Amino acid sequence: MTLNASAAAYWKANVKLVSILLVIWFVASYLFGIILVEPLNSIRMGGYQLGFWFAQQGSIYTFLILIYVYATMMGKLDREHGVEED
Amino acid sequence: MDLQTLTYVVVGATFALYIGIAIWARASTTGEFYVAGKGIHPVANGMATAADWMSAASFISMAGLIAFFGYGGAVFLMGWTGGYVLLAMLLAPYLRKFGKFTVPEFIGERYYSQAARIVAVICLIIASVTYVIGQMKGIGVAFSRFLAVSYDAGLYIGMGIVFIYAVLGGMKGITYTQIAQYCVLITAYTIPAIFISLQLTGNPLPQLGLGSTMADGSGTFLLDRLDQVLTELGFGSYTDKFRISTINMVVYTFSLMIGTAGLPHVIIRFFTVPKVKDARSSAGWALVFIAILYTAAPAVGAMARLNLTNTIQTGEIGSPTGNLAYADAPQWFLNWEKTGLLKYEDKNGDGRIQFYNDKNPDMAAKAASFGWKGNEMVKVDRDIMVLANPEIAGLPNWVIAIVVAGGLAAALSTAAGLLLAIASSISHDLLKGVFMPDISEKGELLASRIAMAGAIALAGYLGLNPPDFAAGTVALAFGLAASSIFPALMMGIFSIHVNREGAIAGMIAGITITLLYVFQHKGIMFIKSTAFLGDMKPNWFFTIEPNAFGAIGAIFNFAVALTVSKLTGDPPEHIQALVEDIRVPKGAGTATGH
């Protein structure tokens, strides 16, 4: 593979990963925390109504996991495509 | 030791620590002054970013906002954390790979245009200056409320402290002080939060306590109790109270998220780590340190609200002895009444306190049958939810002293980060970039220190004479960053087709439409009488409220930039090569200023 083709493949994989993670980002905050909050509130999790929990707790935990997954997966992509730093 | 002396000791000790760090971490090159020599460990940078980001508003006001908005407070919780996901995935690693000193510098080079760089500097300065005014006010208020020092004198002391470590140490001094300030502010926030959670639910973790049962043996969940009590008093249920419509919540949250990702003082923190992969992980660490406070805040808000309500409504609603007699009011109540943050008025002359929603017609009718004549807590300042927490929970004086030091740490750390963003855009982007490209390294370092001193003086002046628009400024700062800087940066990385003409037109369109929308509803520079369309819902564009408009401005920015770029052709070869280069981590060296 030429360097350019490799870089293009790396970028494509990167954009795909980010797109998937941002879909989850949207679902956890906007969809579960705002748009679907009322139906989700009929489900209980201990003292929390689920929609309320996503809005005030769960979305933040999801964001943390997303960045962790992103950093780990990108490190792997860097090595696979030979573009990691020296 | 009395509270006053103790507060002096604790605040004095933290200030001595900051000054000690300033002397130890002096900057001797422009690289150290602008980006701390690119040698900050990602975890340390995460901690500094958390302090940089969490302002007096996050520390003092946010829990109170949530306490009164209930569910609706989620806008701030999600909006001010979700931006880090965007920052980590869309901006920080690539800007770190680019490896320069400032945000406008990237925009200037990527769009091969001094004009684009100057437009970016202007957007940056407007957003950062409006933001820093709030921090200076926070410092003055903290001093005047807790240390028996006048507002003005408090502001001068705060300016003096920032002056010492920011002018001497630049980004290097600011970074290490921010790490210390994070430790102070998170301790100050967490201790009262743990105790209030233990007292109400028996669970030491506020994040779990919020979902637990009450410790009074009733087996009722805390949130259910809160919903029930607030509903009975006419305030409406806590957990599903919408302050604004669903569409406004979505747009407002989105504005805060992209505003967060576009604020230059946060972005430049990621220029200080050694590698691209450090920029990715550091954004995660920053969010970890922020989340410790942000997941505790909803618990603090809900629990403080319940505590306050229970203190006043001691018995059954409507029974003659169900309300606290003013003569029996606890000491903290009287203390905070003195500061004017709480205000009680015995409207029905029964010597007892009634705290309910008299704007709710059903409740007002019911209250009238109890012989109540209106809500008697005529003022309950939201800030009290955090500030009075240690006293309400009966914690010792040293905890109160630490909370004061924590509030000051939050304001100082954010002010310093903003001031650095302003100073570096003046000395590096305007002076070296535009007016004096031949200036020596030594000359630029001196210029950056002078710019920092000037920025501090300006911020101090605006803190002493807050302009009319100061009240609306934080929303404005986010709106501007969201509508101008974030789209320009993101398109600069993710599209090779966006060119100079597109970027400049986009930034100007985004910021203009946001400013126009805010001004037409809130008044030019927030002077009410000049609001030519009125602050009325019928005039709102798709019912979007002005505070939430940054997201719409950003969409305009994207649309204009992409259209104009399409019409005017791709950027030159070497710029396309630059974009390809910042997309791969390989070859990221240390930062250069050229």
Model description:
The complex is a heterodimer of chains A (86) and B (594). With 86 residues, chain A is mostly helical. Chain A has three helices and two strands, in the order ααββα. In chain A, strands 1-2 form a two-stranded antiparallel sheet. The longest helix of chain B has 51 residues, at 151-201. Chain B folds into two domains: 3-305 and 392-466, Up-down Bundle (Sodium/glucose cotransporter); 314-380, no CATH class. Chain B is 69% helix and 1% strand. In chain B, α3 crosses α13 and α8 packs across α18. Chain B starts with a helix and ends in a 12-residue tail after the last helix. Chain B has a two-stranded antiparallel sheet. Chain B has 594 residues and is mainly α. At the A-B interface, α1, β2 and α3 of A face α5, α10, α11 and α13 of B.
> What is the number of independent domains of chain A?
1
Q: Give the neighbour order of strands across the main sheet of chain B.
A: 1-2
Q: How much strand content do the residues of chain A show?
A: under 5%
Overall shape of chain A = elongated
Largest interface: A-B, 46 and 51 residues
- Helical stretch count of chain A? 3
Which residues of chain B sit in consecutive blocks of at least 5 with pLDDT less than 50?
Answer: none
Instruction: Kindly state the number of beta strands of chain A.
Output: 2
Tell me, rounded to a whole number, the average pLDDT of chain B: 89
Q: Mind summarizing the main beta sheet of chain A?
A: 2 strands, antiparallel
Q: Architecture of the largest domain in chain B in CATH? A: Up-down Bundle
The rounded Rg of chain A comes to 18 Å
Q: Supply the helix-strand structural class of chain B.
A: mainly alpha
Q: What is the name of the CATH class of the largest domain in chain B? A: Mainly Alpha
Give the oligomeric state. Answer: heterodimer
How many distinct helices of chain B? 23
Helical fraction of chain B equals 55-70%
Instruction: Give a quick account of the main beta sheet of chain B: strands, pairing sense, barrel closure.
Output: 2 strands, antiparallel
Low-confidence stretches of chain A: none
